[in-house]
Write a structure and sequence with these properties.
elongated; 195 residues; single chain; 2 helices; 33% helix; four-stranded antiparallel sheet; alpha+beta; 11% strand; 4 strands
């Protein structure tokens, strides 16, 4: 006796319909995923800058000097927040670190340049009140590889004023977070402390 099977497969139209639904869901979800990744990087960078501000203050309190910290440079002499090594060799009097829980990394451009330094260079000039004039010498945190979309989010998060204390200036040139030289396309500068 011959029996007939009642099993049926999916039709081509059903398979195409399922693939279309999956494609639509992927198209909707993908931008949200990239936005979440970008927001996480912004949060990490803001937290790192706040941690640095506290670390720099503790270092100064212990040593009476301001640190230089550039972990992406090959010379260990510029990693003073993690190592007791003076710029010319030897040790740093009063050093009681390490001042950071973990070494600095660039959360925006992994492996990218980061630096902490005391400077009054016009390229790093901090204009906190937005009047267009340099406000003195500062401890700054430099992070390379930061595009405008992320940089502006970081600036808005830390300054909360559109770039200046009056809210009328360009975030790239003024405030606690600004562009290197006021217009560099990828270098972001945080003004950590006036010295």
């Amino acid at each position: 006796m011959h029996t007939r099977s009642n099993t049926q497969g999916f039709t081509l139209m059903e398979v195409i319909g399922v693939l279309a639904v999956i494609a639509i869901l992927a198209a909707v979800a993908t931008p949200q995923i990239f936005q979440a990744i970008q927001d996480a990087r912004v949060s990490t960078l803001v937290q790192e800058a706040n941690d640095l501000k506290a670390a720099v203050a503790r270092y100064y309190q212990d040593t009476g000097t301001w640190p230089r910290h550039a972990p992406t440079r090959p010379e260990g002499q510029f990693n003073q927040l993690m190592q007791n090594v003076a710029a010319g060799g030897g040790t740093i009097p009063g050093w009681n670190g390490p001042y950071l829980e973990k070494e600095l990394t660039n959360p925006i451009a992994p492996g990218g340049y980061v630096d902490v330094l005391a400077t009054n260079s016009a390229s790093y000039a901090c204009d906190l009140n937005g009047d267009g004039a340099q406000d003195g010498t500062f401890m700054v945190y430099r992070v390379d590889g930061v595009d405008d979309a992320i940089a502006e989010k970081v600036s808005n998060s830390m300054d909360k004023d559109g770039g200046t204390t009056t809210g009328t200036g360009d975030w790239k040139a003024a405030g606690r977070v600004k562009r290197f030289a006021g217009n560099h396309p990828t270098i972001l500068v945080f003004c950590l402390a006036r010295i």
